Every structure is written in C-alpha cells, then in structure tokens.
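Researcher: Structure for this, please.
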Amino acid sequence: MCVLETQDLTKRYQMGSVTVTALDGVNFTVGRGEFVAIMGPSGSGKSTLLHLLGGLDVPTSGEVILAGQPLSRLGDDEITRFRRRKVGFIFQFYNLLPTLTAVENVALPLLIDGQPLAHHRAYIGELMGLVNLSDRADHRPDQLSGGQQQRVAIARAFVNQPEIVLADEPTGNLDSRAGTAILELLRRAVDDLNATIVMVTHDPRAASYSDRVVFLKDGQVVYHLVNAESGASVNHIVEVMARLEL
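Model: Predicted structure, token format:
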C-alpha cells in the first residue's frame, strides 16, 4: 500500500535575478512499512524534498500525496493539523525542550494536539521501553547523552502513531557507536512496528540500513537501489555514488 507519492514535484527559488531549481519533476512512491534513504551531494535537493514531503514548505508545481491526501488542497490550519497527526519528524539536533523531562518531551505532540495523556500512557511507556530509556524517563535533556536525546526524539516522532516518519540526518550529530544504535532502532521500528520512514543522509553506512536508496542529483531522481534485491553493502552504495558522480 502506498503511503506517500510525489507527482512531478518541482521547487524553484528566486535569488535576486537568478532562478534556482532545487527540485525538478521528482516522482517516487513510498510503501507502508518501507524504510527509504535519500542520498545526494550538497545542493541536490535532499532537505528541500523532505520539507515538501512533510508539508513544511509548498512546491512551485507538482503534488505530494500523503495517506491519500493531496497536500496542496489543505489550507494553512488544515496542513498544520494534518502534519501534527500524520507525520513524525526526527532532526539532526534533537529539538527537545530543555525544561521538560524525557517522557514529557515524548508526550509533547499529544499535548499540543489537545489529546488526554491518560489515554496514551501505556503506549508512551512502550515507546520509552523501545528506545531503552525507561530508566531515564524523568531526566531532562541536559542529563542525557546525545544518543539518548536522539532516542527521546525518535520516541516523540512515533507517539502520534503517524503515517510516516521523516528523518533529516538523524545520526549526523552523533559518534559512530551512538549513530549505529539509532540506525538499529529505526530499523527495528520498521520491522517490529511496521513503521514507514524516509531518511535523508549523506552517509552510505546509514543508507545501508534502509530497504531502498533514492539518489538525487541536480534536483532529480537519478537512480533507485533496492537493498533487499542487491544485498547492498556500504561498499555497493559507495560504488553507485561513484558511478553516478555524486
């Protein structure tokens, strides 16, 4: 089942007298329970694409269809509610509120949405267990390591049981060991929770945890690598990047 589809997605920016094309007719789909990595050089349109997929920005032309809903048909208030309920976000720099505990940060999207926490306590507890932070529930961000803070951010992304989770360089601010733990956690969320994840990364090692790698170049999709079919290793991904001159 298709959770996400883009149709001729294009984004242009005006910089003085110069028109910059960040995305140029991007078409791809993401199925339910699929883990997709998006790779490409700086300036290829990776972050722009992620922002459009999550309704954080609007395309110049084309369409994003998420959970059957064309985003262009939603007004500002509607897309804010839709994003809050249907999309989870994981950022490179965690974006936790320093005055809240770990479990309060996880619950924050529910509070913002006006949902009673009493109905969700069991699931929040399950998420804290999934990210191995049950014993850190009452710790504030400054009492947690970077890897632990990112695990809080992951639990927060899943707390509304979204249709899709969008991750922007989720291991980019972590050392190798903490980064590996985060990637294994995302992989487990897909395998155990049937989660759907789209992850932007520059790291072939991170991409090797995905089911499929979508390569961008000059704002266009230039190649798909299906890991399950190819048995894609880090070296294989690097070889594809070299072949595509990325």
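Researcher: Any notable elements?
Model: The two ends are 31 Å apart (CA to CA). The chain has a mean pLDDT of 91.
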